[in-house]
Amino acid sequence: MPTRNRVKILLFGATADAAGIREVEVEVAEGSTVGELVDSLKAKHPGLAGQKLLFAVNEEYADPATPLENGNEVAIFTPVSGG
Amino acid sequence: MSDFYELTTDVIDIVSVARRVVPPECGATVTLDGYARRFTRDKATGEVLETEYLVYEAYEPMALKEMAKLIERAKSEFEVSAIGIVHRLGRLEIGETSVVITVAAPHRRDAFAACEWLIKELKRTVPIFKKEVYADGEAWSEGDSVASA
Predict the structure, then answer these.
(1) Res A54 pLDDT > 50
(2) CB A12 to CB B129 under 8 A?
């Protein structure tokens, strides 16, 4: 059995609306990346596909190549609009 | 004099925020009062949209971390003594304050420069999200630039 890692995904604002969820836990294959996680999420929630997305892992900005580890919290959001 | 950075769902009292940074070695603070605007030009169509109210939400723990980083960077890049940032979340009526940034410095030029830099960076890096609610719909506002990793 290949090892599976559990990660928590958080969505905010436009991404939460597009996916219809704000938080979900998923299992990913060991060695998979933020980009692969996002691709699988887009396949499940097509509303996310047309959006420009930013990523964070454990509250720090990350890029699609960032590898995922067990217990990571991955946030996916559109370019921020505070101020 | 300690810096501070906060998120709140309460109405922000600008004066009390500004008066929290009055170090004795300084003589002035620069305070930005960002507030909810009624009229926004749609970036794609150029159409002017009339907003009824705003809703802000945040990835709160990361937003606080990013605000702390901004303060640290501003203090290393500008000659300033103390910085406070308070951002409102939840529903805001038109004209209500969404963000206050207050900067105390020995010389005002540095305070103005740091305050301008802080709001520019806050709008680029701090994970806070604004929804504009119109009479006939709503839209999440999208920032212009991409935060660097």
Answers:
(1) yes
(2) yes
Residue-wise pLDDT tens digits, B72-104? 999 999 999 999 999 999 999 999 999 999 999
Question: pLDDT digits over B57-73, tens only?
Answer: 999 999 999 999 999 99
As a whole number of angstroms, the distance between CA B129 and CA A83 comes to 9
Which residues on A lie below 8 Å from B127 (Cβ)? 12, 56, 75, 77, 80, 82
Predicted ipTM of the assembly: 0.95
Q: Which residues of B touch A12 (CB under 8 A)?
A: 57-59, 127, 129
Is this model's pTM higher than 0.90 or not? yes
- CB count within 10 Å of CB A10 equals 20
Which CATH number applies to B4-138: 3.90.1170.40, 3.40.50.2000, 3.20.20.140, 3.90.226.10?
3.90.1170.40
* A14-23 tens-digit pLDDT: 999 999 999 9
A27's torsion region: left (phi>0), alpha (psi -120 to 50) or beta?
A: beta
Please state, in angstroms and rounded to a whole number, the distance separating the CA atoms of residues B8 and B120: 20
What does the domain layout of chain B look like in residue ranges?
4-138
Burial environment of residue A43 by CB neighbours within 10 A (0 to 12, 13 to 18, 19 or more): exposed
Domain at A4-77: CATH code: 3.10.20.30
Query: Does A79 reach chain B within 8 Å, measured CB to CB?
Result: yes
